Description:
Layout: H1 3-18, H2 22-33, H3 41-54, H4 58-71, H5 76-91, E1 109-128, E2 131-152, E3 156-169, E4 178-190, E5 195-204, E6 211-223, E7 226-236, E8 247-259, E9 263-274, E10 277-291, E11 294-303, E12 308-319, E13 325-335, H6 361-370, E14 373-386, E15 390-401, E16 417-429, E17 437-446, E18 450-463, E19 467-480, E20 485-499, E21 503-517, E22 522-537
Antiparallel strand pairs: 1-2, 1-22, 2-3, 3-4, 4-5, 5-6, 6-7, 7-8, 8-9, 9-10, 10-11, 11-12, 12-13, 13-14, 14-15, 15-16, 16-17, 17-18, 18-19, 19-20, 20-21, 21-22
Amino acid sequence: MTPDEIKGTLAQAKVAFRHKDYATAIPLLTQITQQPEFPQRAEAQEMLALARERSGQVAHAKAEYEDYLQRYPTGDGPTRVRKRLQALAWASRPGRSGAADSDHDESPWRVYGGFSQIYRQDQSHLESGLAVSDQTTQNALLSDVSLVARRHGERFDFTTRASAGYSYDMLADGPGSQSRVSMLFAEFADRIAGWYARLGRQAGGSAGLMGTFDGMQAGYQLWPRLRVNGFFGFPVDSTREGPDSERRFVGISADVGTLANAWDLSFYAVDQQYSGVTDRQAVGTEVRYFRPGITLVGLADFDIHYSTLNTVLLLGTFALPARWTLNLNLDHRKSPGLSTRNAMIGQPVRRFDELFGLYTPQEIEQLALDRTSESTMYSAGVSRPFGERWQWSLDASTMTLGSTRESGGVPATPSSGTDTAVSTQAMGYGLFGRGDVTSLGLQYQTGESAQMLSLGVGAQLPVGERWRVGPRLRLDQRKLESDRSTSLVYSPALRAEMRGKHLTFEVEGGAEFGSRDLGTSSEDTSRYYFSLGYRYDF
């Protein structure tokens, strides 16, 4: 999900949560907590746990609370979460009569997860002059499974998590059937001694660990406000692939906090090798500041091998008077992230070690620098609820992607210039009855290559006790500077869900109709997609 999609989904979940519509809030919060780390993830996971608790899903709530404490052990949030866990534990104890106050047993094990299958078909049609083409771009059955098992003992905790999927491709000339493993690890923790160890496929979002990797990380609480960690493993470019032993990393980090009841600090160093040469060698720091009404997250990553700044990031959320919220974002980074492996871009090789037959190590490092550009993004947004039924937001952002040099037979790429986008969204709750959510959004984007004006409207409407219907419509007007063409695209869609206690059925269909004016000719396109599936949660 893009940052804007995460922000919109979280806003929609907050509205549903505030109106005690937990059946709507839980799927939305589950969706965004499955994304890589982002500034509001801790808030989203705490809200998800509380929504499950208030829906009577005690085992799920406990598991979410426990996962929260493992991910975010410092700050004010863990204090609240520990109190909620204690309250749940007390509520589930047997009463004086010997009967349990809850229908959940006292087993230390908590197992939950889900299984889903979705059939998806996409078709496209193109008419350009006398040329006509029809193509089925996707015809597949997508199966996914996720499982979490936890055991909370008097001293030792055990957690294992698995998330995998299989795509059965039914196209004769398609990409083929593929399996993927997003997560598969086991973790042990000793609460008294203060150590933990996690082994397997996992996702990194801090301490310089970016993306998915196969390996191990471990930590030890040296002092009450200092935890040291070590990690090693093999980066994974695609969840469809296994570990690549030619590319490996090792690193250390230290977590300090909470200081002055507000500051959490992390420092790290990581060394990554590829085929015996330095791929990435960096030091960095992460700073988090939490006060009621103020959240700041900063990150800086410096590559000491190339002596250059790789990433600097600053995120801030501020609660203003009169229920206003302000979000700020500054993101400057190498694009793609600087590593010696970038030298492969544009070269006639399939493996990194094949470069050594074409260039010297010094030339390879220069190629890596030449293939790496810089991107800078600034964004700011404000939002405010109006009454109990409306939420309004306004966001503005600019992004610039720099140029790359010509070298090694690879042509230079010019800078993309600065793209600027301004968007606004209004969300209403309960406008037509209990439980419905309606949204209206407008976005304008302009840059050196194109301009676009987009209008979107959508709704989630309850039908009876279990059904929800979600119609959507989006209109895009685009202008390309390369050929001075203009196009108009209509995208209607309809989604319906039937939600039971554990089983959810969903069906979705949509289309995209485009008409492009090239001056002397025109081009018409259409695309249709359909999906049908179910999801079982336990």
